[in-house]
Amino acid sequence: MIITDVTTIKLCFPMEVAMADAIHYMPERPTLLVQVRTDEGIVGLGEAAAYSGHLESMEALVTGELRRTIVGQDPFRVERLWQLMATRAHQRGRRGMLMMAISGLDIALWDIIGQATRTPLYRLLGGYRDTLPAYASAGFYAQDKDTDALAEEVRGYAERGFKCVKIKVGRQPEALLNPLVNMPAAEYATVTFEEDVERVRAAREAIGPKVKLAIDANNAWTPSLALEFMREVEDQKVYWLEEPVATDDLDGSALLAHQLGTPVAGYETETGLPGFRDLIQRHAVDIVQPDVVWTGGITECRKVAALAQAHNLPVIPHVFSSGLSLIANMHFIASIPNGSWLEWDQNPNPLRSELFEEPLDIDSEGNVRLPERPGLGVTLNQDTIDRYRTEQHAEVSR
Ligand SMILES: [Mg+2]
Fold first, then answer.
1. How does residue 392 score in pLDDT terms, banded at 50, 70 and 90?
2. pLDDT at position 93, please?
3. Taking the model in full, what pTM does it have?
4. Distance in Å, CA 9 to ligand 1 centroid
5. Ligand 1 centre from 137 Cα, in Å?
6. Which of 73, 86, 116, 252 has its CA 20 to 30 A from that of 140?
7. 128 or 54, which is more confident?
């Protein structure tokens, strides 16, 4: 089998009400899907993370920089193709966007291998489990969304059966060195330190003592502020604290991991095996959070997971994009022995909930089952693609 072409589909869902985490303002949900085509008619699907909306820059990397490296090659040699893509583009940067672009192609190659061998991807990769517990990822900031509204929102997730809920913290403009002040719409839906503490308490009260509560600061804090905040919510049984400090502040994160009883989770904003090696070796994280659409694909994430396993650390991937990112991370998590929760974004996004012909949902216990169809096991829903694509010439047949 030979790879004949690489194409992309640019999608964007404009949100009715913009949402925000500690530092990012999100009025829309952009998605770049990647299709790898073969001479045998099999089309592999992937996604390259394209956060903040600049789909064209990521598309240029995929179809311009990397396409020429893999066209004409055998898709089964995914390890070899990964190295060719990374090595030949290394002068353009070894992490960041290059890893996001490689991620999209790598996932599509694995999808091809699964389809060609008629094997669900998670089983092809070892099939450690066939069901995953999902956690509700939500609790964002939004205009006119007060603490009562947040409590109401998270209570709904507990009632639906989720056993773990994550909310955002850190959108505090007065926090020293908070990158928020340099971000778009920095004044949108901000809170004080005290209001953020109140949000955590209200969320805990709303979901009750049995449902786990994680919090995510999206790189907003200094180590000292993170310590102060965690002292204030010490009695709220926080399950994990995610990305408390800047991704490059390895010493600061290690200090927190050492001093806090609450596990420190991160860092979705790191990419590539070398970045995760540093986080793990320097004890900067207790929970490792790669993402197959961002970190370097399934190939790279499996290496990150193995490294985490060697240090006795669980892997709870970052999953916050389209349905493609959801299904690809599901297969990855199900394949590894140290996988754990599946992040399940609860914000409205038809590019997650209506992207495929096949529905994906949790059962009444908050668990989701892996599909038993070959490869990723999904088919794009043409109506959803037509409704949200940003250009009119994308082909989605597979
Ligand atoms: Mg996060």
1. low
2. 84
3. 0.96
4. 25
5. 9
6. 252
7. 128
Q: How far is the CA of 161 from the centre of ligand 1 (A)?
A: 22
- Is 122-369 assigned to CATH 3.40.50.450? no
CA of 129 to the centre of ligand 1 (A): 24
Q: How far is the CA of 243 from the centre of ligand 1 (A)?
A: 6
* Distance from the alpha carbon of residue 320 to the mean position of ligand 1, in angstroms: 8
Ligand 1 centre and the CA of 85: distance in Å? 27
Q: Where are the alpha helices (DSSP H) in the chain?
A: 55-59, 67-70, 78-88, 96-116, 121-124, 147-160, 193-207, 223-232, 250-259, 272-281, 297-310, 323-335, 350-353, 382-388
Tell how far the Cα of 245 is from the centroid of ligand 1, in angstroms.
12
Q: Where in the chain is the domain with CATH 3.20.20.120?
A: 122-369
Rounded to the nearest angstrom, the distance between the alpha carbon of 216 and the centre of ligand 1 is: 6
What does the pLDDT look like over 249-297, one tens digit per residue? 999 999 999 999 999 999 999 999 999 999 999 999 999 999 999 999 9
The residue written with tokens 């403009």 in the block is 173
| Residue 397 predicted with pLDDT over 80 | no
Quick check: 19 and 140 in contact, CB under 8 A?
Answer: yes
- Whole-angstrom Cα distance, residue 11 to residue 225? 38
CA of 382 relative to ligand 1 center, distance in Å:
30
Q: pLDDT per residue over 24-40, tens digit each?
A: 999 999 999 999 999 99
Compute, in angstroms, the gap from residue 341 CA to the centroid of ligand 1: 13
| pLDDT at 174 > cutoff 60 | yes
Crossing angle between the packed helical segments 323-335 and 96-116, to the nearest 10 degrees: 70
Rg (CA), the chain: 20
Q: Domain 3-118+379-388 falls in which CATH fold?
A: Enolase-like; domain 1 (3.30.390)
Where do we find the tokens 């949902």? 361
Q: What is the pLDDT of residue 394?
A: 47
Ligand 1 geometric centre to CA of 94 (Å): 22
Q: Cα(first)–Cα(last) distance of the chain, in Å?
A: 16
Interval between CA 128 and ligand 1 midpoint (Å)? 25
